[in-house]
Amino acid sequence: MKPQVDQGPGTVLRLAKSFAVVLSICVAAFAGLTCAASAEPEKARVTGARVAGDEARTRFVLDMNRQVTPTISGLANPARLIIDLPEVTFSLPADSGESGRGLVTDWRFGLFAVGRSRVVMDLTGPVKVDKTFFLPAVDDQPARLVVDLVSATADEFDTFVETSRPKRVVAGSDSAPKSDRLTAPKNRDKPLIVLDPGHGGIDTGATGVHGTLEKAIVLDFAQLLKEKLDESGLYNVQLTRDDDTFIPLGRRVEIGHELEADLFISIHADSVRRGQKLARGATVYTISDRASDQLAEDLAQSENMSDVIAGVDLTEEPTEVTDILIDLARRETRSFSVYFARSLVDELKSAVRLINNPHRSAGFRVLKAHDVPSVLVELGYLSNEHDEKLLISDEWRERMANAMTEAVHGFFRPRLARQQAAPSQ
Questions:
Q1: Structural domains in the chain?
Q2: For 135-150, what is each residue's pLDDT tens digit?
Q3: Which residues form the MurNAc-LAA domain (predicted)?
Q4: What is the pTM of this model?
Q5: What residues does 120 pair with on adjacent strands?
Q6: Contacts of 54 (CB under 8 A, 6+ apart)
């Protein structure tokens, strides 16, 4: 006689529960395998750094949790050594690199581009890379990237710079500014505004009295201002950067030009040097061949150093285009820039504290687009303790963003009114 199989409700329920448990285990295991397969590999981590030696031979060492492949190159005027790495995490003290030793005066580090980190060393003079090697981790010692530098002649350093830099790809003629674009109609309904948060990545910008970083302050503010402008529904708004990435000054100008922007606003929060520690308040700058005052000249020199700080090859900067139409457009563009700057100052007066003579001018490279009205706004000066407190205040940031939004409305009001009055096709 075959044994009777109990197929009652209790048995079926137990079987169902057992199947559910087995199924959930399988699903979890499969999900774990999928996550493991799709997860990005963890970035290498830099855990320590140091410089040792003298003016004849200097050693630079990076402690890392695992080996990566560096690319080392040189730049002249001023003399710098560049170490490019795959994107890594720098777990170093904030003051790392502020002083050097031997052939290295100081050095800095950070994200240079997406997927690419960089160390830039300022040099006392011409050098030669004698040796570069990686020491594997042993016992409690981390893996180490070692770069040995020796003193060299100017000719030897020039040769090193020439042979170590990647060959420049000559851009086609389509990338150059075209005078026929100046009269070409823009096929869009809304004005396009480019907001340019300064610095980023390896270029931290100014540092406040209490450690506030300019690159973080201006990015947060630019994103807030974009939200305000987007809420109006009147504009298309683009950012030159929306994360902690370095953008060269020339590329920032190109972005405004390529997008055929109707307005370009570069946003900064600088630190005043050369003893002018009492400067505070918002300031609006336009471009000028001659600085309006010493403070404007100092700030322009400081801001124009961003590419040097990040280790950009300045010889690759595009040359100025000489064209009668472009010269005429440049003059007209500067007139519109000054008009917006004055309107912005008027709006800011009732909202935030301004510096004395709040509209100033100097030769800021980031404002050099010949066909885009451009201004540079200093939200305040991080070298001033009172300004630093305001720059991190939500209430102050709201007032500043609202005032700038009103200034933008005023600048574009005539154009928007004409568009509304025009008969629909």
A1: 44-164 (2.60.40.3500), 189-421 (3.40.630.40)
A2: 998 888 899 999 999 9
A3: 253-409
A4: 0.81
A5: 82, 108
A6: 101, 102
